[in-house]
Hints:
The chain is an alpha/beta fold. It has 21 helices and 21 strands. The protein is 52% helix and 19% strand. Helix 5 (191-223) runs antiparallel to helix 20 (582-594) and helix 8 runs antiparallel to helix 9. It is rod-shaped and about 160 Å long.
Amino acid sequence: MKLTQLLTKKLTGFWLLSLAAVAFIFLLTALVSFIQLTYKFQQQQMTELEEMLLQHQVRHELQHLDIWLPQILAAYDAQKFTLIRGEETLYRFDRGNHEQSVVNYDRVLNQTLDLHFHISLPQPFLLHNISWHGSLVFLVGCIAVGLLVRRGYLWLAQQLQGIEDLAKRSHLILSGDYDKALAETGHGRPRLINRALTQMLLELDDAQKQRARFDQFIRSNTFLDPESGIGNRLFLKNRLDALSNKDGMMAPGVLLLLEMEDLDLLQQEADEFSIQELLTQTIGGISHLLDSQANSIFSRRSYNQFAIVVPQISLADAEKLAARLLKVCLSQPLEGVNNRDDFFHIGVAYFKVGESKEQLFEEAEMALRAAQFQGNSGWFMYDKGAVDEEFARGSVRWRSFLEYALVNKRVVPFTQAILDSDGKEHHSEVSCRLRDSSDNLVRATLFLPMAIKCGLIPQIERQVIEAVLFDLLPKSPKDQRKYSINLSLDTLTSRAFIRWLQTTLLEYRHLTPRLIFEINEDILVNNLAKLKAPLDMIAKMGASLCVDRVGQQVVSTQYLQSCRVDLIKLHRSIVRQIHLRQENQLFVRSLIGGLYRTEVQVFAEGVESLEEWQTLKILGVSAGQGSFFSDPLEAA
């Protein structure tokens, strides 16, 4: 843009300078011509005077000159005149009022008689004054020339402004801001190029939307059940793999198996529309119920069986959830169903940290069969005995503990390195744990759900950001190490937190480029309108934006066109055993293909084996994070 502005300014300046030079040369030529014309006219007068003197000398032998010659000299405005023959002065004329600027002429009348005269005349151009109507004509001409020059300048500026508009659109295209480039139609010149750019941008926008729809189509057909629109069996397996490792489940939670009794027999008796209406209403009611449960999983295992997984939930809340789930199912209209009171059965299995997935499903299947043996629609869960004591704290105790940790600065940051394909550290992700009064560390999987319920998550994440800015970044000024920090929905929608964050980033703007803020893909997609302003503020401050848990839910990647995203991280459910799962590889290929010609980098989290990492590198993933590289370490 600066280059085009410089060129247009030089072009307009050259144009104006050329006009000024032409005008100057024209005026100079006119002036010289005027002066030469006056001199020529004066010389003609001297020739006429010479002829009159010669005629007088022939007729009257230069007698009686004082009769007629003074009038002629006065008409010529002569200052001095002397007629000499040899050394004798025959006639002398002196006006008395001499001009400073005069022209002297010496003319020989007769060489034989040695007759010549000398005359002094004023400069010829001083004798010719421009009249008022001549001045008026000259003034009108100058005004006309000025108006034409002004008109030409405006026309040239308008044409060059069209080039500026084209340059502006080109700059927006090169910077990747296609939406603004499409909106900046302007008055680009040449118009053919401007229309061509508009047409290409429209086709590019349509191609990007088609690409996003194609990506969503691949994800939908890979991980969604086509009839119900929820996750399929593969989706459930991937998500449970992400919640577990080789030691078993990583967090407590509950698995519910919902089975609709004799749904296959009902399909033979009722029409297809009635069956689809029943499934749609039931699934809609359950999905609405699960909206309040963070990171819940809802999928279809078979034609008449559905699985629901809710991590990080207490045993008491799990029992309440099962009762509410049964209430939602029983509220559905069961037209044409003979056994209305024995149609819905729910098996509940509560799992603790370390339990295996296989054991979990076996227990849920047993609970489901027990619910069916009861004879009526209902739910059943075997007594689990003592559950995780830390997770069983009451809400009041949790709030007291969290407030104690915040007031006493007991938030302990942990870092985990993210390494690129060359084994070099790209950045470190910062997580946190809380240190209780006994100096024991409480893991995030326990206190984060309670912090969200108590509304204290913004304060916790604020202390994490302060720890990074005040402690971690100043310790590594030479290597310019970067750190990523996770932000939740409650934090990003808190006006007080956003004001504090903006002020802090301005104060530490020299450290801001070394910060990366991460946000959940599911949260970003479902709250894009509310989050766009704070995310744009973060990007304008110079920090990077990362979208993590990509692939956890089946959503469109159209948000990448609306937000200035620098990084995306694949969810561990996509990464887990990706070398054995062609459908996950297809998803990663499609995602990376959709990011072609963008500067968005694709990272992977939850890498646990060399085979997974090698497959990810072949697919085009730039960096990885997980236990294969390093475990989270307490920040020194």
